[in-house]
Amino acid sequence: NQLNGLNNKLVSQITCEQKSHANYNAKQLKEIESLKSTVKSLESIISSIQKASSLKDSDIISLENSDDNQLHNNSFLEIKVKELENEKEQVTQNSSFKDGLIFCLRSRVRDLEDELDQIVLQPHQLINDLKIGSAEADPVSSSNDYALAPLAKRGKTVEEVSYFLHTAQSLNLMKAK
Q: Which residues form a coiled coil (predicted)?
C-alpha cells in the first residue's frame, strides 16, 4: 500500500512537471515571438537610418539631434536584445534541468514498479526474509538477489533526484542574487 501510494505520488509529480514543462515551453514561444518583433523593430530603425544617410547635407544638419537620440535608442535596444538572449539561454538550461528531473522521476517510478512486481511474485519469500532478517532464509532459492536488485536501483535514482534538486536550489539562489 505504501509503495502504491508512493508510486501514485510520483506519477502525480511527473504529470505536474510535464504540465509545467508544457506551460514553460509556451512561455518560451511567446518570448521568441516577442524577440522576433524586437528584431523587426530594429530592422525598421536601421532602414530609416539608411534612408536618413542618403538625405542632403542641409537635411543632415537638421536631423543631427534626432540621429543622436536614435543612436542612443539603438544602443539601448542592442543591450536589451543581449539581455533577452541571455535570459533565453537560462530558460533553455532550466528546461534541460526539468527534462533531467522528469527522466529521474520516471526511472524511480519504473524501479518502484519493478520492486512491486517482485513483491507480488515472491510474497512468501520476502516475508520470511524480513522476519528472519537474513538473506539466507531459504538456501534453495537464489532469487533473493534478484528480488532486492530494484532496491539498489532505487538508491541510485534517489541520489540522482537529490542531485537535481540540489542543482535547482543552487540555480534559484543564483537567480535571487
A: 25-94
Instruction: Round to whole Å and give the CA distance between 67 and 56.
Output: 14
Distance CA 154, CA 160 (A): 10
Cβ neighbour number for residue 122 with a 10 Å cutoff: 17
| Model confidence, pTM | 0.31
- With CA atoms as reference, report the closest residue to 7 among 96, 147, 119: 119
What span, in angstroms and rounded, lies between the C-alpha atoms of 92 and 98?
10
Q: Looking up cell 520492486, which residue turns up? A: 115
Q: What is the radius of gyration, based on Cα positions, of the chain? A: 30
Task: Report yes or no: 10 and 109 within 8 Å, Cβ to Cβ.
Answer: yes
Q: Are 115 and 3 in contact (CB under 8 A)?
A: yes
The stretches of 54-143 forming alpha helices (DSSP H) are 57-121, 123-132
pLDDT digits (tens, 9 = 90+) for 64-102: 666 666 667 778 878 888 888 888 888 778 777 777 778
Q: Contact at 8 Å (CB) between 85 and 159?
A: no
